Amino acid sequence: MVAAAALAHGGHVSTTAFYKMTGSGNDFVMVDGRLSPPEQWTPARIAAACDRRAGVGADGLVTLAPESAGVRMTYWNADGSRPAMCGNAALCSARLAARLGMAPESGIRLLTDAGPVDSRCVGAGDLAEIRMPDTPVPAPVSAIALEAGERVVWLGSVGVPHLVVLVPDVAAVDVERRGRVLRHHPAAGFEGANANFVAGPSVPGAPWLVRTFERGVEAETLACGTGTVAAALALAAHCGVPLPLEFRSWGGEPLTVRARVSAAVAADVWLGGQGRLVFTGNWEG
Questions:
Q1: What CATH number is associated with residue 147?
Q2: Do 6 and 110 sit in the same domain of this protein?
Q3: pLDDT tens-digit map of 147-163
Q4: Cβ contact 127:149 at 8 Å
Q5: Of residues 50, 121, 224, 239, which has the active-site annotation?
Q6: How far apart are CA 277 and CA 156, in angstroms?
């Protein structure tokens, strides 16, 4: 009805086909870059599409397009800013690239702003795996004063910078307040960092728990793939926690990290998790 009314009055409606996907609660508007290339997406248009009241609603937007070397994954946060990488978006991209015939399920090279990321679909459901580039292990940060209950803060980069805070109980953390402070802390660098709060399982053998305040969304998100990787590498390097390690996101879904970790560098880093198609549609905007 909106489109018909606009056209009847000589107006123009731009309709974009999209795929709404979720990676453990971290959700995305995803589009076929062959039909809607990155240059068509201004920060204002991205923010409008990701708006949870007037748009589709998402933590970020992704375009996918095949190239000779792989599938180009271009990612923006909900505010239109462009980080180099998003782990859950990459898991969703692996699933969608295969669905759209851009690459085989068994091997998909995603070309991201953080470098090439090998990925693959796992099974017939909605699981995928991505292999991250070798990365320095997160290091302790002494410049950040600990609050009550916080045991240590580490800082590292897994495509994007992450602070990892070890706490006894993630449910007790005021993520909106404390996460916002840490996200803008000078020790996190000029552009700031995501703030991830991680706690061990209450029952031996159960998943670790993680919550994230994400820059660019400027709020808590239900999962963060690269933040989960940063947490796993910090725990393995500094606390002797063996990998692979399973986490439970605040959205309730599992994320698994495996890697070879030395004192300074992590290699053969794999993140496994959900890349589920929720629905498809057409956005008029």
A1: 3.10.310.10
A2: yes
A3: 999 999 999 999 899 99
A4: no
A5: 224
A6: 31
Buried b (16+ CB within 10 A) or exposed e, 130-144: bbbbebebbeebeeb
Which one of 50, 86, 92, 121 is the catalytic residue?
86
CB 217 within 8 A of CB 137: no
Q: Are residues 221 and 99 in the same domain?
A: no
Fill in the amino acid letter for 127: L
Instruction: Give the angle 88-58-191 at the CA atoms, nearest 5°.
Output: 70
Q: Let me know if 224 is a catalytic residue.
A: yes
Q: Let me know if 86 is a catalytic residue.
A: yes
- Give the pLDDT confidence of 98-123 residue by residue, as tens digits: 999 999 999 999 999 999 999 999 98
| Residue range of the domain that includes 77 | 2-128+275-284
Q: Considering its fold, how many domains does the chain have in total?
A: 2
What tokens does 38 get?
């990155």
Whole-number Å distance between alpha carbons of 41 and 78:
12
Q: Give the largest Cα separation in the chain, rounded.
A: 67
State which H helix or E strand residue 272 sits in.
strand 265-274
Containing 58, the helix (H) or strand (E) segment is none
Strands (E), 78-159: 108-112, 115-122, 127-132, 135-136, 139-140, 152-158
In contact, 170 and 211? CB cutoff 8 Å: yes
